[in-house]
């Protein structure tokens, strides 16, 4: 097995005016899906989390050969998010977050 490098989080919080949505060619951006490409070929899994326009999107990108139980990991993540959603409903019933899942190819 190849040696793995230590994983380090990268956090970015660019400043922007919250009273104006982002635009591309004059059209308002309504949704953003975070996607990152690792600089190094030894990264088996990466998580990207982005908050925009009142939603939080989480993207999981993984090497299926290096992480054969990816479906189990995604199921656990969805269970944890469902628990957070339930807690949010108890705190602010009108604004509880929702979880959507997209799968590539």
Description:
The protein is built from one helix and four strands. The chain is α+β, with helices and mostly antiparallel strands and 105 residues long. A hairpin with a 2-residue loop joins strand 3 and strand 4.
Task: Set down the secondary structure blueprint.
Blueprint (H helix, E strand, L loop, with lengths): L22 E2 L2 E2 L16 E8 L2 E8 L7 H22 L14
Antiparallel strand pairs: 1-2, 3-4
Portion of residues in beta strands equals 15-25%
Strand pairing plus helix content: what structural class?
alpha+beta
Strands side by side in the biggest sheet: 1-2
Helix content estimate: 10-25%
Order of helices and strands: EEEEH
What distance separates the N and C termini? Answer: 28 Å
Summary of the model, kept short:
The protein is α+β, with helices and mostly antiparallel strands. The protein has one helix at residues 70-91; strands spanning 23-24, 27-28, 45-52, 55-62.
């Amino acid at each position: 097995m190849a040696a793995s490098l230590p994983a380090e989080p990268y956090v970015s919080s660019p400043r922007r005016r919250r009273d104006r949505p982002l635009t591309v060619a004059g059209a308002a951006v309504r949704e953003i899906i975070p996607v990152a490409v690792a600089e190094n070929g030894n990264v088996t899994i990466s998580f990207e989390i982005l908050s925009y326009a009142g939603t939080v999107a989480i993207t999981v990108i993984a090497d299926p050969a290096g992480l054969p139980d990816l479906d189990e990991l995604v199921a656990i993540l969805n269970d944890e998010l469902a628990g957070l959603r339930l807690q949010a409903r108890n705190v602010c019933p009108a604004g509880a977050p929702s979880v959507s899942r997209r799968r590539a190819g």
